[in-house]
Amino acid sequence: MDDDLRQTVRRFATRHVATLGEHPTAEAFREAFARASALGLTGLLIPEEYGGGGGGHRDNAIAAEELGAADAGFAAAVNLSATVPGLILAAGTEEQRRAWLPEIAHGLILAGAMNEPSVAGSELFHPSPGPESGFATRANRDADGWRLDGTKAQWVTNAGVADAYIVFARTAFDRPGVVSTGAFFVPAGTAGLTIGPRSQLLGLRGGWHGEVLLDGVGVPPDALIGPPDGALPLLAASTAGMAVGLAAVFVGVARAARDLTLTHVRTRNSWGRPLIEHQAVALPVADMEAEVRQARALVREAAAALDDGGDTAVLVPLAKQRAVEAAIANASRAVRLHGATGVTTGAGPEKLLRDAWTGYACDFTGDMLRLGVAAALR
């Protein structure tokens, strides 16, 4: 079954994702996303009773790696939309699940409007937070429900192409943000919700990113997912699969760098023989193989722990941190072993290196993940 899924997604990724390029139009992105949804990838983790595939995190890791090997930006976009529903499953009402999950499973594109220009994700792990910590975006109750005001940073994934946004906003400012933040389901097109120009990140350009502006955005009471002050603990508990899926995306990047390099060193000659027959080339190629296998093994272990109810406190951050390190290491080797071709725009290695380094800052930096591992080991 795993091999069938891998081959199905690989064929799709080769045909419809690798051909997108780094600057797909909104129409091209949406078309590829719709195809991914029709294949069942966006609803993979949603139970069958809500229109999904009823799969597990092992399945999502396989799909995410295959998409990541074709284009990490698009893969990260699909992974976010596929894993954020974990919050709705964990904390949403039955009415919310039945209203939103079938639409998400069948192609509704989600964005998670969380981080802000002046609030890094690492602040959420402040050891002794006060009322001044946390998001500045506020959610005020009114007669019709809630009013949202604030600004989310220009790297919100899927901003500009999303059909709905999960907006995180403070419901109180007399307590730390970690215990005074709510999550709200806001359809695109809601009055007061606007998106800034498409951001140009170092990598992941096959996806879409942008600033989210909220100016008196009115939403009904049932837009609130879970309690008005418990969104962040719920997010951490219910969407660990997002980090594991994203880790798998970067295993795909590490694998793509290895495969691209193998083709190059097997076919390009130096001193009358293929490059791979020179020890100076063969040794880093062997290291590339180890990087892929080690990172994949950790991601699989973390995905299995999520599926089987195991201890994930160490495995999840470790898998994400290790996969990104493998991607950076392999993409760096690919650039070096390709020589002048490696630094040529459009040749492949430099794109993989940009994608890999962008991954370092996605969903907590590598240093924050390492601190999370260390905290779990105390």
List keywords for this structure.
378 residues; alpha+beta; Butyryl-Coa Dehydrogenase, subunit A, domain 1; Butyryl-CoA Dehydrogenase, subunit A, domain 3; 3 domains; 4-stranded mixed β-sheet; 4-stranded antiparallel β-sheet; 12 helices
Report what the structure shows:
This protein is of the alpha+beta class and 378 residues long. It has three domains: 2-105, Butyryl-Coa Dehydrogenase, subunit A, domain 1 (Orthogonal Bundle), CATH 1.10.540.10; 110-228, Butyryl-CoA Dehydrogenase, subunit A, domain 2 (Beta Barrel); 239-376, Butyryl-CoA Dehydrogenase, subunit A, domain 3, CATH 1.20.140.10. Helix content is 49%, strand content 16%. The protein has twelve helices and ten strands. The strands form three sheets. The protein has a four-stranded mixed β-sheet with strand order 1-4-5-8. The chain has a four-stranded antiparallel β-sheet with strand order 2-3-7-6, covered by helices on one side. The protein is globular and about 80 Å long.
